[in-house]
Amino acid sequence: MSAALQVTAFGLALLSTLFLLLATCTDCWMVNADDSLEVSHKCRGLWRECVTNMQDGVRTCDQYDSILADHPVKIVVTRTLMITADLLAGLALAALVLGLDCITFLREDPCVKLKMCYGAGVILCTGSILGLIGSVWYAVDVYVERAMLVSHNIFLGVHYDFGWSCWLGMAGSTGCFVASVLLTCCLY
To answer: Which Gene3D superfamilies does the entry link to (predicted)?
Structure first.
């Protein structure tokens, strides 16, 4: 039972970490259409902004000036939290691989392997909380930006939605949290 639970938690953690990495690297955190005719489709990400022409499907991307340039707080905070979540999830995966019962590393000391799995669960929990805070922070800021435009009657046909990268970040963080619960609470 313990080995099956460990492998299940590892598979979920691996998939969720991939989701977190994809969310950090991709460029569709916020989606908006610039006009009511929806001639173009714009995705804003953490690293660049891409515009897709809906008529011919041509996509052009503009990199942000510099990583050290002045950026909105939502981009800086989300970048920091997502990169930290990625690093912690990767560290947790490495510790979890070494702590799995099916791996021959430290087979003679099962207590140490169990502590490695527990430690991986704690690290994974920390990373998942940071990733969830980063994803939700960005989503809330997108919602507030839209609400400010509507309340000031500056709607102008622009609508904002959460992009698939934002949803991917939330899903990856939630999966990492579930994997950490499996490792910390259910393994003993």
So the answer is: 1.20.140.150
Calpha distance 113→118 (Å, rounded): 9
User: Is residue 42 within a helix (H) or strand (E), and if so which, with residue range?
Assistant: strand 40-44
CATH (domain of 165)? 1.20.140.150
C-beta separation of 182 from 137 below 8 A: no
- State how many domains the chain has: 1
Cβ atoms 42, 137 nearer than 8 A = no
Q: Is residue 67 part of a domain?
A: no
Give the structural domain span for 126: 3-28+72-186
Average pLDDT over the chain reads 84
The pLDDT value recorded for residue 68 is 63
Task: Give the model confidence (pLDDT) of 136-174 as tens digits.
Answer: 998 888 888 777 777 777 655 566 778 889 999 999 999
**64: in domain:** no
From the list 126, 169, 154, 130, the residue with the least C-alpha distance to 30 is: 169
Would you say residue 36 lies in a domain?
A: no
Contact between residue 100 and residue 121 where contact means Cβ atoms under 8 Å apart: no
Residue 38 lies in a domain: no
Q: Give pLDDT tens digits for 20-50.
A: 999 999 988 888 755 555 677 788 888 888 8
